[in-house]
Specification:
This protein has 153 residues and is α+β, with helices and mostly antiparallel strands. 33% of the residues lie in helices and 14% in strands. It folds into 2 domains: 51 residues, no CATH class; 80 residues, Orthogonal Bundle (Arc Repressor Mutant, subunit A), CATH 1.10.10.10. The longest helix is centred in the first third of the chain and has 14 residues.
């Protein structure tokens, strides 16, 4: 596994890759370690930089798919939420063919997403339009949504 730190408008991020795939993005990362050459991390850092600069709306990165079958379905649906738009947990459940009661499980899968920002779990909001929990903190979620759609909040 290779890791790299990068600065961003939402704080330090630690990017992880393994076997030619982006495997994780961690929040609140501190600078440490040497910069190791890695084509996946080079591409991820570049694309994230473009995203934060308002120059990119979609990511084109090889992603690891480590998770349960249900989590993978949810994460796939997250990637279908267009830039600047949001969906509720219940809407995600319905899109996957589940009853609304499954929205809590969708929330749990959303929270387990190991590749935030690239797999846009920040675009999922509560049924009443509120910013519900986010692994990186609600303030980060708000910053990401505002970056995509200024004036949203």
């Amino acid at each position: 596994m290779t890791t790299r730190w990068m600065d961003s408008p939402i704080g330090g991020l630690r990017l992880h890759s393994s076997a030619g795939l982006l495997t994780a993005i961690e929040f609140d990362a501190q600078v440490r370690g040497e910069r190791v050459a890695d084509p996946v991390l080079d591409a991820a850092e570049s694309q994230l930089g473009e995203y934060f600069a308002g120059e990119r709306q979609e990511f084109d990165l090889p992603l690891a798919n480590d998770g349960t079958e249900f989590q993978q379905k949810v994460w796939g649906e997250l990637r279908r939420i267009p830039f600047g738009e949001t969906a509720t947990y219940g809407e995600i459940a319905a899109r996957l063919g589940y009853e609304p009661v499954v929205s809590r499980a969708v929330g749990a899968a959303n929270g387990a997403n190991p590749i935030p920002v690239v797999v846009p779990c920040h675009r999922v909001i509560g049924a009443n339009g509120t910013l519900t929990g986010y692994a990186g903190g609600v303030e980060r979620k708000k910053i990401l949504l505002e970056l995509e759609r200024p004036g949203l909040f």
